[in-house]
């Protein structure tokens, strides 16, 4: 009897100890192909910290920047395959796959309220549930983002007219940017972002299409002499979470994530990107890069040159998605 009593006490103590043991926090892996100091990488790190705080530490987030989990064109697949719980997706990195989303980045196309990322990112995120969910199947869209318009940044050649761009080799990513550059008489080259500085230094490329913020993030200032305004076109992004990961979380955690998603988050991130763009402009100035603004006549000429690209792209996407024109109109209104 004595032995049974001791055994019962031991079992009770063990049970109590088990019940008292803290539940380990769940760690979500976020993939970023961008550098650690890029605005988007910093934004998802801040998002993860906020998520951890609002779940009282039940959820923690680890961000893997600089393509540690995979290259730029594999980010969406990392999420749907379960190799990452969330990722930053550059739509143009996989041509044709996110054709509707990329319409928001067409040349000289932006909401009527302006081309600030604050405005365009909010609008695109708001339209995503109705128009872009199918392209992001298997994921939950946390927010969408549209860069400030990408500028043509050049080493050596002064782009004081569109004619000056003819024959230049310019780094770009995606069909839209390729079409724009070819229309301008330049030769687009698909150089990975991390290799652009070396490409400029060695003369492999004459320039690159990036917003000012990315010029700073990839430290292109020492290799550049000029940057051209206005920006020609934008790149679109999505910050997505695995639907499987999201569905596996507690209702309380899902509610927190829902509150940390949507148009307001797109606008908030866009505002940070706009701040980064201003910082990038200052960075170029510190590196003695001259920012050249096209004359009104040249801007009118540019508008006329890219109009057929816009029409053709909408028509091409419309073959598979009849909502293409409606989406573009809703985005630019």
TrEMBL record:
Record bears the keyword Repeat: no
UniProt-recorded name of the protein: Bacterial extracellular solute-binding protein, family 7
Source species taxonomy: Bacteria, Pseudomonadati, Pseudomonadota, Alphaproteobacteria, Rhodobacterales
GO biological process, one term: transmembrane transport
Primary subcellular site in the record, as a coarse category: periplasm
Residue runs in coiled coils: none
PANTHER family noted in UniProt: BLL6794 PROTEIN (PTHR33376:SF15), PTHR33376
Gene3D superfamilies registered for this protein in UniProt: Bacterial extracellular solute-binding protein, family 7
Subcellular location: Periplasm
GO cellular component: periplasmic space
InterPro entries: DctP_fam (IPR018389), TRAP_DctP_sf (IPR038404)
Signal peptide: 1-20
One Pfam family here: DctP
Keyword vocabulary terms for this entry: Periplasm, Signal
